[in-house]
Design goal:
9 helices; 4-stranded antiparallel beta sheet; N-terminal domain of MutM-like DNA repair proteins; globular; alpha+beta; 275 residues
Length: 275
Amino acid sequence: MPEGPEIRKAADQVEKALTQGSVMDVFFAFNELKGYESILRGANVVRVDTKGKAMLIRFDNGYTIYSHNQLYGKWMIRNAYKYPKTNRQLRLALHNEKKSALLYSASDIEVLRDEEVPLHPFIAKVGPDLLTEEVAAEELVERFESKAFRRKKWTSLLLDQSFIGGIGNYLRSEILFLAGIHPDLRPIDCSQDQLNKAAEVALMLVKRSYEHNGITNDIELAKQLKEKGQTRKGYRHWVFNREGEPCRIDGTEIQKVKAGSRRLYYCPTCQEKIE
């Protein structure tokens, strides 16, 4: 599933394509949305927002298209009406004179009045978005220490979109690694230094991933590894997807475990569990 940085990247591309002129044509695959095609046709896209893993395409006539890619959704931008060759199912198409923004495979698509957006079930419950909102590290620490979250395991919290919006599986492993937090711990089990570090690295890694196309590893190190011939998989992350390989900090073998039915990677020494 694409995480917050990937959705924001896609939103940037959709916004760039669709703000070049009024929407000339609209296609919805779902019958319940067909009536909105004529309502949105001729309108202008004013901006494309994101909230966690949700995308919000804002029109100047008071309507917003909400979409969530879930596991398989994918946006593609093409020259107008130049459809790609793909086995994916087209769910939404927006065309202007120059470009087409095409959403494939996603099933979670709605059209809302602007005033309805804050009341949407996902938008209403999602936590702070570290890419699109001004969030200070101190605010995140307060959230970690709050009654609602302090006794829940980090491995569950970091996938809970009501905790922080947009964080998914690879960011979960990377945040815990750089914060030095063992996967079995809860915020209440951590030192103040660990909580402060977790807040700092969460803010930093989300931004780094967005700015560097999914890379969470140290950028200079990633560049050096790439120059030495390593594949993207080899230089992209600190620990995620690196089971059995040496930790980039101390050489300990990276471990993989199941946490919340999804894979998680960690270094047993950098993230030592102190009883």
